[in-house]
Write a structure and sequence with these properties.
The protein is an alpha/beta fold and about 1300 residues long. Helix content is about 50%, strand content about 10%.
Length: about 1300
Amino acid sequence: MWPGILHVWGSPESPLREASELPIVTAVAAAGGAKRMGDPRGAGAESGLARKSDPGAPAPGPASLKGEREEPNQGSVLFLGGNEVKSSAVVKYSSAPPQAAFARLQEKTDLKLPPANWLRESAKLGPAGATILGNSKKGKPFSSFGMAYDFIDSIGNDVDVVSDSENIKKLLKIPYSKSHVSMAVHRIGRTLLLDDLDIQELFMRSSQTGDWTWLKEFYQRLIDQKWQRKKKSKEHWYQKAILSKFLYYSINGDGAAQPVPPEEQHQEETTEDQTAEAGRVSWPAPFEMPSSLSEDASASNQGSVPHEPSYVVGDVSSVPKEQNLSTLFSDGGNSQGLKNDFVRNILWTFEDIHMLVGSNMPIFGGGRYPAVSLRLRDNNKPINVLTGIDYWLDNLICNVPELVMCFHVNGIVQKYEMIKTEDIPNLENSNFSTKVIKDIAQNILSFLKANCTKEGHTYWLFKASGSDIVKLYDLTTLCEETEDKYQNPFTMPVAILLYKVACNMMLKKNQNRKHYGTIRTLLLNCVKLLDKGRHPQIIASANYMLSELFQLDEPKKEESGEFPLNGNSDESYSEEEEEMPDSDENGSYSTSSDPPDDNKAVAVIKSVGELSVPEKYKSTHQIRPSCAFPVCHDTEERCRLVLNYVLEGLKSVDSSIKKESDLPAADPSTPIPLKYEDESTSVGPECLEKQMALFLDKMGSFREVKHSSQSGMIPGSWQYKMKLQLILKSSKAYYVLSDAAVSLQKYGRALRYIKLALQCHDTYCCLCTNMLSEVLLFLCQSLTLCGDIQLMLAQNANNRAAYLEEYNYQTKEDQEILHSLHRESSCQVFSWATDLSTDLECQLSISCKCYEAANEILLFSNLKGQNPEQYTQVLKRMGNIRNEIGVFYMNQAAALQSERGENKTVSAAEQQLWKKSFSCFEKGIQNFESIDDATNAALLLCNMGRLMRICAHAHCAAAVDFKREFSHEEALYYNKAVDYYLKALRSLGEREVHPAVWDSVNWELSTTYFTMATLLQDYAPLSRKAQEQIEKEVSESMMKSLKYCDVDTVSARQPLCQYRAATVHHRLASMYHSCLRNQVGDEHQRKQHRVLVDLHYSKAVKFFHLLKDVPCELLRVQLERVAFAEFQMASQNSSAGKLKTLSGALDIMIKTQSVFQLIRKELVAEFEQRLEDNKSNVESVPAEDSSTSLNKEEIVKLLGIFESRLSFLLLQSIKLLTSTKRKVGGNSEEEEILKTNKNVYSLLLRSAANKNLTLLERTEVVLNLLEKLTQDNEGNILGIQ
């Protein structure tokens, strides 16, 4: 049963019958080659199954025919003289008792005398009695609907026609008969429903009640101006009574006539009159029923209706003025004929026409006859063509191979005659061509299908008595021109049938989505037919099913995927065709108001003779030429359609609830104010905690609390069940809209939609006494999405004004849905989660509370195990939001720290923020570790390390008298930071788990060690530790920093790592250099320090060279190396040693040539840029603000040092070389070096004396001097070689 859908099965006393398909099939044709009498395969279309709804029906009994029945051949074809007629029959359902063996009456039996068993129940007849055997009542006006309701699977798809067998015969006899034809035609998909439309009975009722006057006036004006009621003759009732008595005689055990005792004669005659009177059609009132009748009918049904989760129409007890739907299915005097009263329902295939036919023809068996039909004929009246066609078609439909004819004269039995079914068309005075009958059937079906094109419309097929013209009218169109368009009595049955077919397809909708267009069109037509005020239940249910057709959570690509929703198929059609005039070669639709009746007819058959012409009428219309299911191009469009249907459904439900006057007045057109608050006490963390506690308390106790509706809905009523389903659907639609808005980064709109979704859910919780796990899971998802939105709003605070505008906007549709929700609930349970706050901390707290609420729901409802993915997602989000809040508090603490300055102690506010941040990180790590998310846990540990570094930085002692030292608290916090970083690395395990995070943690760890070492080196705690211990700790920290500094992996961070490594080596070299200068130790240690200084300086130079964009740092390192050479030279005694050291120092100077080239390049680029700016009349940019990365002040300073050291080295070199020459006598190489050095020294002194040189010019001079030294050096090397 489709959840929440109204199911219209019938009255509670007669539930939907199951189609018992008994394939008793044969093919019967006109002459020759037919099955002989007694062939077991020619058994009649009869089933021994009792009707499910009739507990009193006898159990199946043995067939009268002895011996085993062979399996029949379905759809066999017989040939008759070159012509063929294919016919097969399958009994879908039968309530007839086992076939009674007919008794052959003795000659001279007087049929005018009633038998003793006349009109009495008999075991052979079953409880239906006279109805089964021969009280051939005129067909009820809705007989086809009764069958359609029972075999709903066949409607719209497999079957072409559903009708009473009498109507089928009447249609096929049109060319042969002068009698009038009046039938109502309805179309459901490819199926046509045909019902007898007794105009005489209808107008007779109209004269009494005043109903149907519009049709009566139309009939008298255009068709029969002198209409009057034609009464049936006494002969008619006499013949019916004779036939009934004959059939009762035929089932009598001894076969003898047993007249009724005289005292019972009068009672039997009275019964006969009553039976004849009951044979007349009792037409229903259109829709205006007295309120008392409706209430009575409703009251009479209430006691017997079972209460089930599915919605049975009989359950409805609506407002007094509404016609109660249960009267449509009741068996009482107000019955509208919607029950399937046929003894058997047969799926008859005649040629290519599939018909579901109802038949009450009595079938007998006995002796060697498996099935025969009994007929009573007046011997003085020969069988004519009409009677022959009647008999032939009856036997074909019921699959009866033989006809037994009893002839009488004035009620006295004369003789019996046996006639095979295939011989009937060749009887004397009754010759007819079976092929012509086939052509007539195909032509009539084509004519009707071509012109009855609008589902939900009632068409009237009419042929006047004695006329050859057949006309088709659209009564729905004619009825709409009157004051009350609901005057058409077929409106309700058609609407219910449309609804039932749609409902049946809905149950199978997941099997094939190509039916969606069909379902939608059926439901739209159903809603269009019904009056909203009178039938709210069906309208609400139809609108709910319409909303269910749209898959809210499907990806967009599926809309045009494997299911051809917009392709041409027989299963779907466009609503647009309803607005277009239909026409074909044989008829046309006209909207003209001219007096001639042709302008009122949809189509006309100008002569009944045309029906006999093969393929004269062809259906030029596909029943469903194109798709009606809308292809939604985006999610919002799809959801808006769903919400539109939901709103219509809610309106129907609300309109049917009586306690309107008890409700507070609310105008749907007035916007419901949305609460908007800024930084006030009502949105603080404490208030949030209280609201969360109340919410969780309510969620935890909803099973025990008995909820009630403010509007007065009764739990268990159809309004209650339907409103729950509609509210849940709207909640899902708003959720999808919110999710779509998030993907578009429209976070204000997203918050508005999720607020509406949670308001719907709040109302659902208020009404529902026992929530399903699926609903709780959806609530969990909604709260999770709400948390996401609040987080996004917090992270995008710059667009707050735009988000506020989106949040406050409301459509009329949303207002009306909210109005319906407020009938049941205040909708404030989730207000803590959906308010738009301007406070960043509050938004983050709300987001966290949403995730916590979702997690609580998963835990207390035991959904954690059933939905592990959802649980993982919630915990991941909880960990993430706690990280965000922790970072927020950490940044606030850092901001406070920068504001207070360095000379003040740590404030209590800072410490409070540290605690909050630490707590959030700790909880977040627990969340991630509980779902084995090592990567995110590592990131939070990394953030905890950063927090510890901020704490360490905050404890820097005030630099009093410039004697600041690295404090114990700083060391403590830095060591804690190192511990958290190492934990993060252990959490990851190896780099392959997440390379980016691994590299990030390594970098942070390296930075921590480097910072700690730098602070130890720069602010040595000499008051607490010895110099040697400090140097050792600095060295260890620096080496650990190098260990975690990855200089080899190519990445965006590689230059930073190289710079860090260069800086570490530079600092270590400087530290050991300082040790050599300032400390006196043993010679071994000094020698070791000299080696370390050389090693670290060379490595620093190597890394700075790799970077190519740090000329100042590289120049400084090289100058320190020169200074180290000078220091070594000072301790040397021999001239040769000093000369060697000087030569090495000058080599270092020469190697700085690349540094000065880079400086010159940057200065030239800056100069050219300035020239271009001057040409463009653009104000020149100051040097300090130029785009170059050079620190000119630093360069000037370093250049001055460089020039002085170069001058010193050259001077010392000249002195040493001169003294050596005097003592020993110089060689040519040394003389050349001396000459060059003197020349360079002279140029350098002149340059230094010129104070007007610019930085660029000084750089050029240095480069020229270095070039000369380079050439001289290379020449010396070549000379040596």
